[in-house]
Amino acid sequence: MPELPEVEAARSVLEGALDREIRSVDDSDEWVCRPHRPGEIAGALVGGRLTAAHRRGKTMWCETADRDGRPGPHLGIHLGMGGRIVVTTDADDHGRAGGDPRPAAGYTGPVPRKPEWNRFVVTFTDGGQLRLFDKRRLGRVRLEPDLGALGPDAEEIGREEFRTRVRRGHSAVKARLLDQSVLAGVGNLLADETLWQAGLSPSARADELDTATLDHLYDALAAALRSAIEHGGVHTGEVIGFRHADADCPRCGAPMVHGTVGGRSTWWCSKEQA
DNA sequence: AACAATGTTCAGTC
DNA sequence: GGACTGAACATTGT
């Protein structure tokens, strides 16, 4: 689930947790909170509050203030492969603490309680909580996250910079799009969607692409990003539902084919992206 | 049971 | 040292 569009939505949810006094913090998951020791993050936050929520690529961080309003450490949050942010208030929680925030479509029964999937929880003095809900446990929380290795955000990068950064190096163009130090925010599905929209082979060498092709790719990425944000996630991309065996390209009808590019499972149109 | 999964990181190889 | 590749990471779903 989490690529730039989903993370931006999560960042927006995070804003509901701002300016509320922190009563306690459960940072006992030593894997998710590594390299911090249990209690370390709690010690830095309890009594203070979160004051702003930011995002660059797939990384989010909150500014904090202590009980006297002085600036505190940044709280970094990464959703990993499937994490979600849940923010509750005392009034709207209805005892669902720990429930899966996204029951399967059409499921109308009780929301299953899986408290163990809440990997990091901040409880406010008003009784509400901020939770990192993550079944797969690849999400991450840490103080003072290092953003130095991230390239410019995929939503903000300019045409010129996109061109020079993507073209650098000899790897496949999809690998360049996925490299968070080239530009930050593109994940596996968004990369496949963007390349399909652009009619470009995922394994084309990035340094062999001409300027017109790179500009076309830039436009395709901007459009795919905007569409995903507007429609609620990268899974709403036009080709995403056709990333499976025996599927045909929804545009030209030629068979979709599969392979590994940039170390990730990749689907492309056998005719338009040859 | 074996394998893939919307992400990152580390070890190994050029 | 830099650039690149593939496996590993923890866990769930198919």
Automatic annotation (TrEMBL):
Record-annotated Formamidopyrimidine-DNA glycosylase catalytic domain positions: 2-139
Q: A Pfam family name for this chain? A: Fapy_DNA_glyco
Gene3D superfamilies, per database record: 1.10.8.50, MutM-like, N-terminal (3.20.190.10)
Highest taxon of the source?
Bacteria
Could you list this entry's UniProt keywords, alphabetically sorted. Answer: DNA damage, DNA repair, DNA-binding, Glycosidase, Hydrolase, Lyase, Multifunctional enzyme
Listed under catalytic activity are: Hydrolysis of DNA containing ring-opened 7-methylguanine residues, releasing 2,6-diamino-4-hydroxy-5-(N-methyl)formamidopyrimidine
Q: Which family does it belong to?
A: Belongs to the FPG family.
The UniProt entry, under PANTHER family, shows: FORMAMIDOPYRIMIDINE-DNA GLYCOSYLASE (PTHR22993)
The entry's protein name is Formamidopyrimidine-DNA glycosylase
Q: Which organism was this protein described from?
A: Pseudonocardia humida
Query: What is this organism's lineage?
Result: Bacteria, Bacillati, Actinomycetota, Actinomycetes, Pseudonocardiales
